[in-house]
Amino acid sequence: MKKGDMTKKILGTVSNFFIFFLLAAFVTTCCIMLFISALQGSIGREFTQDEITVAAKITMLNVILLSIGMAIVDYVRRKFMVERPVKRITEATSKMIEGDFSVRVEPISKFANDDSFNEIIECINKMATELSGVETLRTDFIANVSHEMKTPLAVMQNYGTLLQAPDLPEEKRIEYAKSIADAARRLADMMTNILKLNRLENQQIYPQIEKYDLGEQLCESLLQYESTWERKNIEIETDIAERVLVSADAELLSLVWNNLFSNAFKFTEDGGKVTLTLTADEEYATVKIADTGCGMSAEVGAHIFEKFYQGDTSHATQGNGLGLALVKRVVDIMQGEIGVESAVGVGTTFTVKIRRADYGLEEDR
Question: How many domains does the chain have?
Fold first, then answer.
């Protein structure tokens, strides 16, 4: 223990003694005065000065002994019931400040204690668990971002070096420049999605709820990929129920449809088929986006909503593994549901359920 801490502890003990001394002296003096007054009245005689002096000395000795006893009891009580729990909590929080979130505080015995310290300890342990999880996610996120950034940066560096060749043919120059532009676009898209996902997860984006026709929004999103399906000769089949109104944030939901359509056309080979279906019941509007692409195994399907996860590495240059993480987060914010069914070599179907207008988020506010 440091010298300054020891001095403070001694001064605190002496201070407590004097507080107890003054309290005991006041209470005892009042009681003795009342007792002597009552006794004189009952026996009918006055006490002499010598008798009062002796009684005062005995009373003073009793007050001192009583004060010492009270100070000792208070010291022992504080030592075991206050200082020990506080020391445990202080040591644990000091380790958390240093970055050790694996620390946990052992609950104190309930014997002669109230449960207040255990409530604090329980909250600290929960906080440590949450911080440990956040730290793990942060570390994994940084590692994944660093890994994902290496590929486009390496492409840009390599092709930039090749472009410096003095006798480079024109067609090669165009090819290399296009590769650099594609890598830069992929890097920019990744940064945009990271920012969007970060804002969504930290609740910095608040949904602007409005009632609108979901079928119209789906058609508008699908038409953005018209050039893609014509180039790949993909068959489009739609079955969209009319006047399906939902209460949701249209801008956020457009992220969902754009990502799902993008994946459907990316993984569907030339001559394949993409199907869009919109149905509705009293509570939910159900959107199904199906393709006849390569499909995926159950193991891959269990991880597709995780950040940076890409089950099909052959298409890794066309994405960054953040699209479906964004989709999942948006659907959760909209209090909807999302599921996926897939089979290797057969295709994939994403199913999204969004509340109808009559059961929208307005009711939950």
Answer: 2
The pTM score is 0.50
Residue 61 resides in a domain: yes
Residue 347 sits in a domain of what CATH number?
3.30.565.10
Phi, psi of 166 (to 5 degrees): -70, -30
Instruction: Tokens for 247, please give them.
Output: 């209460």
Q: Say which residues have a Cβ less than 8 Å from residue 63's Cβ, sequence separation at least 6.
A: 21, 24, 25, 28
pLDDT tens figures, 253-279:
888 898 899 889 988 999 999 999 999
Predicted confidence at residue 214, as pLDDT, reads 92
| Distance of alpha carbon 94 from alpha carbon 116, whole angstroms | 21
Q: Would residue 308 count as lying in a domain?
A: yes
Q: Which two tokens stand for residue 287?
A: 């959107």
Domain range enclosing 96: 3-100
Taking the C-alpha atoms of residue 296 and residue 312, their distance in angstroms, rounded to an integer, is 8
Q: Do residues 307 and 322 touch, judged by C-beta distance below 8 A?
A: yes
